[in-house]
Structure formats: C-alpha cells, structure tokens
Amino acid sequence: MQALIVLPLAFGACLATLAGGALALALRDRLHLVLGFSAGAVIGLAFFDLMPESLEHGHLFDIRGMLALIAAGFFLYTILDRAVSGHGHDHEAEGCAGRQRRGWLGAGSFSVHSFLDGFVIGIAFQVSQAMGIVVAVAVLVHDFSDGLNTVNVVVKSGGGFRSALRWLVVDAVAPVAGAAVSLLIPLPEDAIAVILAVFSGFFLYIGASDLLPESHHAHPRFFTTVATFLGAAALYAATLAAR
Predict the structure, then answer these.
(1) Band (70; pLDDT cuts 50, 70, 90)
(2) Contact criterion met (CB below 8 Å) for 115 and 14
C-alpha cells in the first residue's frame, strides 16, 4: 500500500527535475543569469534545507559534531574537485577534459542527492503519512532546482547538449530509484542526518566555489547578483512553504 503513495510522488520529483533541466537548456543564451540563480539556489539548498534537516534529525552528534560533518563534506568535495580537475579553476590550463570531469562530478553529486530525495520520501512515510507529505512537497519543489543545477554544472564545464541531457535523465530517474530502494531497505534516522550533513558541505562548495564565481566571470555583476539572491530566496520560500 505504501508503494502506491511513495512511487507516484517520486515520479512527480522526476518530472520536476526534467522541467528544471529543460528550462536551463532553453535559457543557455542567458547562462550567466541562470548560473547566478542556480548558485543562489544551491547555497540556499544547503543553508535552508539540508543543514536544518540534518541538525533536527541527527542524534548521534551534538550541534558541533554535525557542523563538523558539514565541514568534512565541504573539504571532501574540495579534495575530489582538485583531484578530478588537477588545476583548480584555471580553465585554460585545466583543459576541456578536466573541466568536463568536474562537471560530471558535480552532476553526479546532484544525482546522488536526488536518489536520497526519493529515499527520504519513503523513509518519511515509514515514520508517518503527515511527515511523508511534508517531505514530498519539499522534494518536489527543490528537485526542479536540482534539474536546473545539474544542467548548469555540465554546460558550464564545457559539456554539450547531449551530455547535459544524459545527466538530466540520470538525475530525473534517481528519485524514483531511491524511493523504490526505501521500500526494501529501511535506514535509521541518524544515518540520514549524517548523509544530509555531508551533502550540505558538498553543495556549499559547488555553489560558492564553482557556480557563483563562474556566473560573475566577464558578465554584468548587478543582474547576476540579483539572480543569485533570487535563487536563494526561492529556496528559502520553498522550504517555508513545505513546512
């Protein structure tokens, strides 16, 4: 019976992801504005959604310990990013292959996050139907942003239309797969909190160290700054509406 509720909601998250990615592909000529919005949305996702959820549901560690996990996620992604690119953010020295690997790393992180979104929907319904509905609303809202961000990360890193579309499909299917797995493998609440904390660090790095600087590179700063604040405000409003 639970599957009849969880899987359709996960499919809705799939459609929301596809819609966000389609918008990003349609607005490639305005990429700097889309990147600015995406940077704000990613940072807002970390601050307004993942961090509060991890702090609220994490009982194995105190607040200092949970913040340490967030920092660990940030620096772990820093190491992965440097290892993949080899040359930091010097795009000329980095080369096309290095930039594309960085894009795949970012898109892969969003896809794993989307998988966890679907998984968390299923886990929330195991707790109660009310919690499941609240979590599902939150997932539907910010999975639109995930699709947008996945496409932006790939395109910004030199990936073409087909590469962006492939990653978008992976990201869109991920919540359905996560929801299906949740019906088979229950996960303790503390484990979910740890995962959310680590991913908070991941997305802080992607937004602040990658998307945000790229959106301002050789483009008018005023409008990209406005777009960044709009992206963060949109995620903040979404999290308030979902509670």
Answers:
(1) very high
(2) no
Q: pTM higher than 0.85, yes or no?
A: no
pLDDT at 52 over 70: yes
Distance, in Å, from the CA atom of 230 to the CA atom of 62, rounded to the nearest integer, reads: 32
CA 173 centroid distance within chain = 14
Q: What DSSP line would sit under 121-155, residue for residue? A: HHHHHHH-HHHHHHHHHHHHHHHHHHHHHHHHHHH
Rg (CA), the chain: 17
How far is the CA of 133 from the CAs of 21, 44, 128, 235, in angstroms? 24, 22, 9, 18
What single DSSP character describes residue 30? G
Q: Which residues contact 5 (CB under 8 A, 6 or more apart)?
A: 125, 129, 132
Report whether pLDDT(223) > 60.
Answer: yes
| 23-27, 141-145, 190-194: least confident range | 141-145
Give CA angle at 232 (169, 105), nearest 5°: 40
